[in-house]
Structures are given as structure tokens and as C-alpha cells.
Amino acid sequence: MIGSPPHPNRGWASRFLARQLARELRGVARRLLAFVLCLAVGVAAVVIVATISRSLDRGIRLEARNLLAADLAIAGSRPPTADILSAIDGWTGSRRASLREMVTIVGAPRDGMAPRTLLVELKVVDGPYPFYGNLDLDPRGPLSPLLGDDGVAVAPDLLARLGLGLGDTLLIGGEPFTIRGRVLLEPDRIGGAFTLGPRVFLSAAGLDRTPLVDLGSRVEHRVLIELPAATTLDQLHARADQLKAIAPRSDGWRVETYDQAQPALRRGLDRLQHYLGLIALLSLLVGGVGVGQAIRVWIAGRSDSIAILKCLGVRPREVFVLYLGQAAMLGLAGSVAGCALGFGIASVLPLFLRGIVPAEMLDAWQPMALARGMALGLGTTLVFAVPPLTQVLRVAPARVLRQNAEPLPGSRAVTIACAILLIAGTAALASAQAGDPLLAAQFSAGLAATVVALAGAAWLLTRGVRRVPRDGGWVWLRHGLASLGRPGAAALSAIVAIGLGLLVVFSTQQVQSQLRARMEAEIPDDAPSAFFADIQPDQWEPMQKLLAERHASDLESVPVVVARVREVDGKPVAELVDQVGGGGGRRWALTREQRLTYMEKLPEGNRIVAGELWIDPARNELSVDQEFANDLGVHLGSIVDFDVQGVPMTFVVTSLRAVDWESFGLNFFIVVEPGALEGAPQVRIATAKLPRGDEQRIQDQVVAAFPNVTVVMVRDVLDRIVKLLRRLSWGISFLGAFTLVAGLVILAATVGVESSRRGREVALLKTLGMRRAGVAALFATEYALLGLTAGVIGALGGGLVAWIAITRAMELEWKNDLVSFAVAIAVAVVLSVLAGVTASVGALRRRPAEVLRSE
Amino acid sequence: MLPSGGRPLTVLDDVSLAIAPGESVAVLGPSGSGKSTLLALMAGLDRPTSGEILYDGRAIQNLSEDALALWRRGSVGFVFQSFQLLQHLTARENVLLPLELRGDSSAGAAADELLDQVALRDRGHHYPSQLSGGEQQRIAVARAFAARPALLLADEPTGNLDSRTGSTVLEMLARLQRRSGTSLVLVTHDPATARLAERRVHLLDGRLVRDERDEMGQPQPLLDERDEAADRLAHAERGRA
After folding, report:
1. What is the mean predicted confidence (pLDDT) over A845-853?
2. Which residues of chain B lie closer than 8 angstroms to A16, CB-CB?
3. pTM assigned to the model
4. Of A317, A555, B7, B120, which has the fewest beta carbons less than 10 angstroms from its beta carbon?
5. 3-state SS of A628-672?
6. Chain B contact for A302, CB < 8 A?
7. Using CA atoms, how far apart are residues B61 and B74, in angstroms rounded to an integer?
């Protein structure tokens, strides 16, 4: 090698690079604050989601026994059989408690008026409860003595809603009970967001005083079992298997062990973690775009230094390593800052999640969540910093002699490697965050398409701006347009980033508001407003009369017979369930408690799509909803054997129906031909339209007259769903906002990094006679146009995503919401102007002479 | 040939120049004559579209960027008109850089000695922005000699300095060059500055038009015997540039 310098020591190069790295880092952090901020915002989002999901997951694991309140439980919609109970009693050292849960109406007596009523979730405890966890009562103490035969313990919410206090009387099934205590915390009930009403505890003896356990009332029976303390997990599962053999799933029994408790909650959490995790990742990726942008501008500003280094004999690849080292240090700083921010926010989050998640389950100190934040932060730095860093390879050393020296020719291999790094890196980050390669691939593909669309639109707009005639109009508008369209402007990445953030926030807001509007306002005018359950056949006539007197209209009622499927086409359900495996709709359809009705003519909203209604006089016929028929695995001609409360009955499917479930009418999956079930034990359900504003009074009077009847106000239920939806969408918007913030940081940072160019512009404009306010207006115009572009593209994109979600995924009707669209764009404009002008304040303040002298 | 507004522009044409070890050569010529381009080609900063640049008999024009950087590290020192110090490093660190790059085990002591030689030992901890132009250029001279290069390339080293400061810097440059036996190529448009070198080549419109040597083979003294006429000529040429 010509004139190669001596290499006296091994490792001299790495020592030199380490020393030089330390020197280069001086003042870099201040100049690249944007880099650190962009990354920190994204990492914080990741850490928050990971912290919540990990702490809930850990909480559920640690609190598993408490959440089941037992080691083992068996649940079903029938009372446990003698076989089950004797098997449990045969286990040495074990104890059991029986629980019954049902939804019913309670009332607060009022002088001279029907009692004021409320839908509640009733829980009847027979035996020691809970075996694990705490049931916090006020006054403190065990439950059974507090309740006695005529007492109840209720949730504070019930007292507030009915205007009652301790010692007052509560009517259950028409019978008076004394409120003896308040239930502050119940171990096996998580959150209040998914329940139909407040909790009421009642003793078994107390329940016997009421007529509630009439045939047909929907009661969930549950036996909690405590095993001896020394029981191993294997022994526990052996006990569970023993129970499953006696009480099979095909008969509607569910056996739960504490280590597998709350499976639905866990599944929900997993899904939520993946979904929110990807939204958080989006903020991080937008942060990554900011990192790339900051590096690009930084390298451009350091070209002279890089040329000097090359001139002095530092090899291009060594310069690259030197700058990669600096980027890595900043990545580390940004990730640490993000972890700290995420930890801080996660620490105060329980305040905002009150009512959804028990505060004691949220522990912000989750080292693995912080590790995830660090790993993804550094990964993002690598993926997004390396491509712009390769610019250092192209800096011509001849710049030391000629400022305008042409950059060195680029290497195709480097370009290809960068493209591979960006694509594979993003996919790897998504995969790490989603935990599911397919979901990660879908996310990456969707993101790539969105970014390409946003970038393409931004490119077209910035090019379009150049063609706008600038020979008239306001001077600040002309200059603003010129700045936006200037070659090399950083507008593109800022537009993409802000646009992406707005897309997430706007699409979430649109889906949420459209669903809410639909639930609040779009209940069909002819839809019933009240739903009555558990009406005894002989109660229907007097109840009909009562409702008619209170001007209720559109009264409809059908009988309901509860049954279970035993066999389909000769195959026992147990066998079919085994074939189905796992879970899902088919297993549910086969094992659920079937609610059958019988009628001569189908109600409105039902349409026969195959076969004919009641055509075979020789056999008992069924008409089945076509989608349910798929789940059940039946078709025209299928023979279905039912167990109708102990009596076997055989039916043939002779018609399939399409049902309009959104009509809120009395619709059934399975309708039976009249004449077959009339003799079976049954109840009636009914719907009615109650005069507006009079619903509560009529509910109170119905319950007073028919204490066993449960009344559900359709609007109440919808209100609860809307409330839950609002909370969920708040969480998603909160994370989406991180993306938006990352976008704004990018804008502010780009403006900040370009401050020397800005400073010179300001100095020249001031020298030419423009006042500071005029210059500020000029800048504001540029940023407003940038925000407008990002806003229009982001809102259009968000609208498209929401439209797909509403019309395709949810199959609902789309309503254009131009006001929200305009507001979203306005928000993008205002925030962009604020971020841009704030970052330009330094440049605006400097005196012209100061700037021009330094040129 | 350089691209200019989309069309290639011929900057140097048929230039043949050989420099002996230890020789000092001044390259003179008006603005745009191709002086700096010649320097950039000799330093491997630019590549010729045709022809050869030989160092120790071996061609450098086809070496990779990495190989060129290594060659410069071991063999070439630079002094520029605009100093080209690294602004984020102190004066001492700027001098240290080439020594550390060579893996010199006594880099610190060598850097301090060089700072002594340019009389700036006490300013070593200052950043370039805290030094005057003359001081910055003296630091650049110390840096240029730090790695004891066989070839020193100086591009208008006094171009941004007043005449007295410029003379001081040139004195130091000449002293260090004589002491180290380094070959010096000094690009200037100032005949007075060019008298520092024992050989002067003149470029005009990219062609080498004159090559002259001092009769005794000794460079002319710079400060003491310089007459006012030479000073005025230098100013006039600088004005034209």
C-alpha cells in the first residue's frame, strides 16, 4: 500500500475512534435534541403499553387465586349435580362454597308510589367466601353474619343511584331486605365497565324468601373449591380432570383452575396488547423518521468537518463508524429519556384508568417493559439512522478546497443494503412488538402503503406549490409558498410524520364517534325501548294490561323454552366438540344453553333463504338462522336431538333464515314449529315501546306488580356500551397523540436545526426592510401550509381507515362528518404553526448585523 | 475536467510536473488558472479524467477512497487558506489528530512540542473560534507537520491573513519544512509569497506556462529583504483575485 502509515499497536484504530467519538459528542446532544425527543416520545409510548400489559398480566398471574377466589371452580347454568358435589366432598381437606349469580331488578320503596327500581347483579353466597383475596366490606367483617336471612350488602353505586343508605330497605323480588353493608372490593370481579348493574350480595336463605329462582330465571351456578395448601399444580389439574369427567363441557359445565383463571380476560388483554402495541410502535416509527431527518440535516451541517477528517487520512468507513457511534449514543440517550417518560406516565395512569382496571394491579415498575423500550429504541435508531449516515461516505474531501465540490458517486450496494435494512428492520420491530409474524406483516404492509401514499401526496403538493404564480398577492403568502416548494425543504418528512399521527387520531375518533352516533341516535324509530324477561306464562296477560294502560305500544311477546343440543345427525355433542377442538363459534353454538321459541309465522326481519317453513306435517320442524346453522353444523334435513329439561326431543331442519339482528326485535337462532313445545316448562319474554321520559316509572310499576320479572332498558345498555367505547377510544387516541407529538417534534426540530439558514433569511429580510411581525407571518404561512397539507392528507387517510373499519369490518353505514374533518385539519394547521414559529423564535430575535457578519 | 452547469469544463490541460523529495515548489497563476485543482489532484482529493498522478513511482488516481485516505494519513500534510480546523476540537486536539491517526505512542508530547514551535503552547486548550486567524493558521501549520509528512500541500496559506501575520505564518512554515525535509507545494497568486519556494511554476488557463528555479537552488528570504514594490504587487494581485 502506498505510504501506509505505521500501526505500532494493536487496536489503535478503535482507541482512536473511541477518543474521537468522545470529542465529537461535545455539544452534539444540544444540536440533536430533536433526535433525542423524537425517539423519547416513541419509546415512551412503547413503554407505557408494555408496562400496562405486563403489570396486568403479572397481576393476573400473581393474583390468580384471588381472581378465582378459589383453587378450582366449576360453573354452569344448572345447579351442580349430586355427583359433582359428592366428588368434591370426597377430597380430603378440601372445602367448597356455592355461589349463584343472576341479573335482576331491585327496588327502593317509596311512600304511596311504586318502588324506584334498578337492574343489578345479584350474588348469593352459601358457604365460606372468598377462599382467597379480600372481600372488603363496610362495616368490616365476614359476609355471612352480616347478611343473615334478611340482609344485603350492596355496591356504593347502588346506594347513590337509588338514594339509599345503610339500614334502609331494598326490595328484591318484592321481598324487603335491610341494607347492612357496603361492598368496597370483590376479589373475583374486575372493573365495573363490563357489568350490567351494581353488585348486591344476598344469603341463600334470603334468596329462598324471594320468588326469583323460578323456572326459567337465568342463574349462573358456581362452586368454589379450596384444596389443601400442599396441593401441587399437577394434583390441582388432576382434580380438575376428575370434575371434567363428571361434568363435561358438552353439558355446559366449565371447570377453571386458578392458574388458568380469567381466560377471556387474558385473551382480551393479549389482543389489546398487540393492538395498542402496534399503535405505540407507529409513534416509535414516526420518531424514527424524525431520527433519520435529524441525522440527514446534521450530516449536511457537518460536511466540512467530515471532509477535513478524510483529508487528514481518516478512512470513509472510519468516519461512518465515528458518526454511527454518535448516533448510537444519542439513541441510548433518547431511549433512556423515553423509558423515564414512559415510566412517569405509567405511574400516574392508574388515576385515569380508575373504574376500568383495579389501581392496585397497575405497577409502573416493570423492568421488562423498560428493557423492551430500550431494545426497540436502539433498534429504531439503527434502522432509521444508518441510511442517512451513509451520506458521510459520499462527502467529497475536496470540499476543503471547494465548498461546492460534487459529492462522491454513491454505491449501489450501499443503497440496496439501506433499503433492505429499512424494510427488514421495520418488519422485525413490528414482529417484536406484535408477537405475531402475520399481524406484523400486515402492519408493515399497511404502513408502507400509507407512507408511500402520504409521501406521494406530499411530493405532489410541494411540487404543485412551485407552479403557483407568485406575481401577485401578499408578500408573506408568496414567500411562504416559495419556502414550502424550495428544493431540499424538509417538508416531506414533517408532512409524512404529522400526517401519520393525525391519521391514527382522526381514524380512532371517527370510528368511535360514528359508532356512538349509531348507538345513540340510530336505534330504529320502531325499535322497542324495554325488554322484559322471566315472565311466567300466567303473568303475561295482566302485565300486557298494565303496560297498555301506561300507553306502552308495540307489545310483543314470545314463549321461551330452555334446552340443550344432545345430538346432531346422530352424533353426540361431546364427539362433535372434540372434532371442533380449540374454541370459537362452533363450540359455543353446540354447548350453549339453547333458547327456543315456537310460532306460526316468522316476525318481521326474518326471511327464509332455504327450504320452507313448516312443510312436513309428520315431524317436528326447526327453522334455523343460516349463520348459526353453519356454527352448529346443520343443514336442510339435519336431525337435531334436544334435551328439553330432561325430556329428549327430536327435530328436523326444514328451513334456514336470514335474520336482521339490528331490528332490536325478538329474534331467535332456532324457531320450533308450534305444537311441539307447548307442554314444556317455559317463560315468556316481551318487548315494548314505552313513552319517552316515563320509562323509569313504568319499570318501577312493572317490578312492583311482578317482582320476578327483569326489565332491561335498551337505552341504558347502549349507554353503558357507549361509555366503554369512549374509554377505549380515549386510550387509543392517547397513544395516537404520541404519534402526532412525534410529528410535531420533527417539524420543530427541522426548523430548529435549520436555524442558521433561517437566521440568514431573517437577517436579509430585516435588512430589506421587513419587520419582525412580517417575518413571523411569513414563517407562519409556511408552517400553516405544511400543516394544511399534512392535515388534509392525514384526515383523508384517517377517514379512509375509519371508513374501511365501519363499512367493511363492522358492516355498518358510513356517515360523512365534514365538521370533524375540518376540525382535524384546523388542529394540524394550528399545531404546526405553533411548533414552527416557536422553533423560529431564536432566529427572529437575532440582530441582522450579527448574522451577516458571521457569514 | 469538472462538471459545470451540466457541461464538462477543462480545468487543467496537458500539465506535466515532477517534484523531487525535499523540494519546495510554488504554483502561481491568476484566479481560475487551475492552481487549486492541481493541488487537489496531487492530494488525491480529486481524480483526473485522463493522465496519471504518480507518488514514489506508483499511480494514485485509481486508488479507492479508503486507500487514498490511508496514503494521505501517512504521507501528506495540508495547510488551507480557510484554516480548516475542526471547530469542535481544541487547538491541541486538532494537532493531536494526525498523530493519533498514525498510532503514535507519544502523540501528546509531540503535539505539545509542535505547539511550542508555533508559539501557541499556552493556547492549546482553546477552541478555533476563540483564536485569531493567524493563530488558527499556526495551529493548522503545526497539524500539517504533526505526522511528519513527505509531502506538504499549502493552498493560499496567507490568503485570509493580514500581511504581517501572513509573513509570520510563512516563516514558520518555511522553518518547519526545511527542518523536516518535507517536499512543499505552495499554491499562491502572490509572487512575494512564492519566493519562499526554490522553484516556481506558472499556470495560465489550465496550462503550465513557465517553470523557474532559483539559481543557487536556495529560496529567497521573505521578510527582511522584501521591498515595498513586491508588497504592492502582492496586494494588487490579491485585489484582482
Report:
1. 65
2. 100-101, 103
3. 0.67
4. B7
5. HHHHHCCCCCCEEEEEECCEEEEEEEEEEEEECHHHCCCCCCEEE
6. no
7. 17
